[in-house]
Amino acid sequence: MAETPDGQEKTEQPTGRRLSKARSEGQVSKSQEINFVAGLLAAVLYFSLGSRVMVDGMMEALRRMFALLSEVQLTTGIASDLLQNMLMDMFTLAGPFLLLLLIVGILSNVIQFGFLFSTAPLRPKFNKLNPINGLKSLVSLQRILELGKALVKLIVISIVPYLIIAAELERLPLVMDMGPQDILQYIGMLMLRILLYVGILFVLLAIVDLVFQKWKFKRDLMMTREEVKDEFRQTEGDPLVKSKIRSKQLALLRKIMLDKVPKADVVVTNPVHVAVALQYDRTRMDAPQVVAKGARLIAERIKQIAREHGVPIVENKPLAQSLYKMVEVGQTIPETLYKAVAEVLAYVYTRRQRAA
User: Could you tell me how far CA 197 lies from the centroid of its own chain?
Assistant: First the structure.
């Protein structure tokens, strides 16, 4: 299990924010072997389809050069012209191939991690100058893997050409009787076979490397529980602070609600656990409205305020429970409760008229 310098274990998977930050800094899961294999297979495909064109182009360039040498005396100026012409011919023949390698290299990166542009990897990192960190990197898992891959590549590049060329030794006398163009074509086909077999073995190596790089990338970005908590505080806020803010908000809302109790027409109770304050103004309300409600301590506070301001308190357990569950503060009562509330209000108004 990975650990931080202070000994904490990184047991938590990287969060989306951690992955996004790593990507913005140019840290992505990437296998260089995939890029190499893609370029190698592109070369095999290019030469298998265009080898004839390249051989003909090379032969034509050689013919022009030898024809010119046979017609004129070689001087410094002519030698310079010949060199320029040769370089131009080489660029003409190799240009499309180099362009193909560039495109394949870009596409292989895009397929692995999408489009990404970051200048972070170009910035100087002074911790790399630390000799202790340098010694640690020499024995890291990544270094061991790189050494292993280099060794496998060396073995493949050494053995595959040897086996293919050894199998062709019997045909060498026949090759000697071929013309120059046929010899070039034969050598080209031989090289293609070597590249193809090497490429197949390198594909297997690239797959192993890709799986390892993805695993290592996730492992390197794993977090300690404390890091996850710190990130949560940064993005969502400290839970304790949020709890205090929420408590203050609830207290403020409760005060605003209780301030409306003196204006209520009646407080309906169940009688102990629930209290709901109702107000009805015919001039501006379509139906009675709940201006305050609460349970237990809040219910007791509502009843206390009602007594202090002479608001009638009516005990009606079914109605109190229904109002408490069905209607939020500030909402009008539903039609299903019209009759029950109307009876309570009628009772209150009748008492008020008698008292007057």
Answer: 36
Q: Is 137 exposed, middle or buried (0-12, 13-18, 19+ CB in 10 A)?
A: exposed
Using one digit for the tens of pLDDT, what is the confidence trace for 290-305?
999 999 999 999 999 9
Q: Which phi-psi region, left, alpha or beta, contains residue 102 (left: φ > 0; alpha: ψ -120 to 50)?
A: alpha
Residue 277 DSSP SS3: strand
Tell me if 92 sits within 8 A of 57, measured CB to CB. yes
The DSSP secondary structure of 6-22, one letter per residue, reads TS-B--BPPPHHHHHHH
Tens-place pLDDT, residues 144-166: 888 888 898 899 889 988 898 88
* Full set of structural domains in the chain with CATH: 16-234 (no CATH), 254-355 (3.40.1690.10)
Residue identified by tokens 């265009």 is 50
Instruction: Tell whether the model's pLDDT for residue 167 goes beyond 90.
Output: no
Sorted by sequence, the CB contacts under 8 Å of residue 14 that are 6+ apart come out as 22, 218, 221, 222, 223
CB 288 within 8 A of CB 278: yes
Residue pLDDT, tens place only, 60-75: 777 766 666 666 666 6
- Angle, vertex CA 310, rays to CA 306 and CA 311, nearest 5: 50
- Name the pTM for this structure: 0.48
For residue 184, CA distances in Å to 43, 178, 188, 191, 262 come to: 17, 10, 6, 10, 105
Sign of CA dihedral 144, 146, 148, 150: negative
Q: How far apart are CA 219 and CA 1, in angstroms?
A: 9
Helices (H) and strands (E) in the chain, counts: 12, 4
How far from 183 is each of 6, 90, 188, CA to CA, in Å?
66, 19, 8
Q: Lowest mean pLDDT of 211-220, 256-265, 307-316, name the range.
A: 211-220
